UniProtKB/TrEMBL annotation:
Cofactor(s) listed: FMN
Record-linked InterPro entries: NfsB-like, Nitroreductase, Nitroreductase-like
Keywords (A to Z) from UniProt: Flavoprotein, FMN, NADP, Oxidoreductase
Organism: Flavobacterium fontis
Name assigned to this protein: Nitroreductase
Keyword set includes Lipid biosynthesis: no
Protein family per UniProt: Belongs to the nitroreductase family.
Record bears the keyword NADP: yes
Residue stretches making up the Nitroreductase domain: 8-186
Gene Ontology MF terms in the entry: oxidoreductase activity
PANTHER family: NAD(P)H NITROREDUCTASE YDGI-RELATED (PTHR43673), NITROREDUCTASE (PTHR43673:SF2)
Length: 210
């Protein structure tokens, strides 16, 4: 069995964290790098990733998260916020970064930039916001897989009130929306969930070959 699959079998959606244990700065840097290396449509990374460390903010977020203990007990809380109404401004910034990073002229990629603008701007705003929200889940997956390799526990969470998160974290003013949340840290020794076998479909149920 590959080490990747072994790590995937080790991880689970942690229900109870050891609030006394903190993820090291070095490991947080590794996780941030993994998030930054995530694939995204067109490479645009149409989101902001917010590490909420302030305990007062996290205490405010807990009631907006159905009272779940992971919000305050985990070492770190990560909020993936998708960009709303993405358009020319973000695309221009992406190509400016590309030109500087690759040492090329803007004229070399002008056709691709125009194509991207025409394609994205043609998508209705509501559908565009759904699209950018979907991109956050790819980055979330990279975070979870990298954390499992470091034997750091994670809990991906959709059980929260996005509007309250947006208000508490000041996301509305930044044209951002809380799409998905992930608690990271170390499982508590008495979290019974860690001993439960994974429930997954059989290969014959899940996979199909045409």
């Amino acid at each position: 069995m590959s080490e990747f699959n072994q790590n995937a079998r080790w991880r689970y959606a942690t229900k109870k964290y050891d609030a006394t244990r903190k993820v090291s700065d070095a490991d947080i840097a590794t996780l941030k790098d993994a998030i930054n290396l995530s694939a995204s449509s067109y490479g645009l990374q149409p989101y902001k990733v917010i590490f909420v460390e302030n305990p007062e903010l996290r205490a405010q977020l807990q009631p907006a998260s159905w009272g779940q203990s992971q919000i305050v007990d985990a070492s770190h809380l990560v909020v993936f916020a998708n960009e709303l109404n993405l358009g020319n401004e973000q695309i221009d910034a992406y190509f400016e970064n590309m030109v500087q990073t690759r040492g090329i002229a803007l004229s070399d990629v002008q056709g691709y930039m125009d194509f991207m603008k025409n394609t994205i701007n043609a998508i209705p705003e509501e559908a565009r916001n759904v699209w950018t929200a979907k991109q956050t889940y790819i980055a979330l997956s990279n975070l979870m897989n990298a954390a499992a390799e470091l034997k750091i526990d994670t809990t991906p969470m959709e059980g929260f009130d996005a509007q309250q998160y947006n208000q508490i974290l000041g996301l509305n003013e930044r044209n951002l929306n809380a799409a998905v949340v992930c608690a990271i840290g170390y499982r508590h020794h008495d979290d019974a969930t860690q001993h439960a076998p994974k429930v997954r479909k059989s290969e014959s149920q899940l996979f199909e070959t045409l």
